[in-house]
Amino acid sequence: MSVPGLIEQRYDVAMRRALELARQAGRAGEVPVGAVVLAPGGEVLAAAANAREAQHDPTAHAEIRALRAAGAALGCSHLDGCTLVVTLEPCTMCAGAAQLARVARVVLGAWEPKTGACGSTRDVLRDSRANHQVEVVAGLRAGESEELLRQFFARRRPAAP
Q1: Contact present, 98 and 134 (Cβ < 8 Å)
Q2: In whole angstroms, what is the distance from residue 19 CA to residue 1 CA?
Q3: Is 0.85 surpassed by the pTM of this model?
Q4: What separation in angstroms does the CA of 32 have from each of 105, 136, 146?
């Protein structure tokens, strides 16, 4: 589902925060991805950025870190009614974690056509065989997220001769 006006208004502040976290991650040498978990009432439970390099941990994706912090804040592994707002379509690991956490929805910025698992290469969140399906809302501030990623990888790749 793409972003209708009311959804955009409801999650825009959280996406702006996720984008700022992504920028900070990029400046620190991490792939620029940020995530925010909102409680059912809309208040921020947790926010995080990628920290794989800093933590020497392949699982330290923004989504995983934010979901862990939200679970700790609630004192529960189930995040019923919560929303995960993330700048980039989650990978299989992160989509699986969101599903296991039982979030109600994932609001994403840019699609990830190589490893995305919310509709790009696979659709972990809406698989009817699973015991919990997650609403997916895509495209919120997608251009900003895509540009952050484009600039980050352009700086890391050597110029062609």
Answers
A1: yes
A2: 21
A3: yes
A4: 22, 21, 10
Exposure of 73 by Cβ count < 10 A (0-12 exposed, 13-18 middle, 19+ buried)? Answer: middle
> Measuring CA to CA, how many Å separate 21 from each of 30, 62, 90, 132?
11, 9, 16, 29
Rg (CA), the chain: 15
Torsion, Cα 89 91 95 101, to 10 degrees, reads -110
Q: Which pLDDT value is given to residue 161?
A: 63
- The SS3 assignment for 104 reads coil
At residue 10, the pLDDT reads 87
User: What are the residue numbers of the active site?
Assistant: 63
Question: Which residue from 150, 63, 148, 77 is spatially nearest to 107, judged by alpha carbons?
Answer: 63
Write the CB contacts of 121 (distance below 8 Å, at least 6 apart in sequence): 113, 114, 115
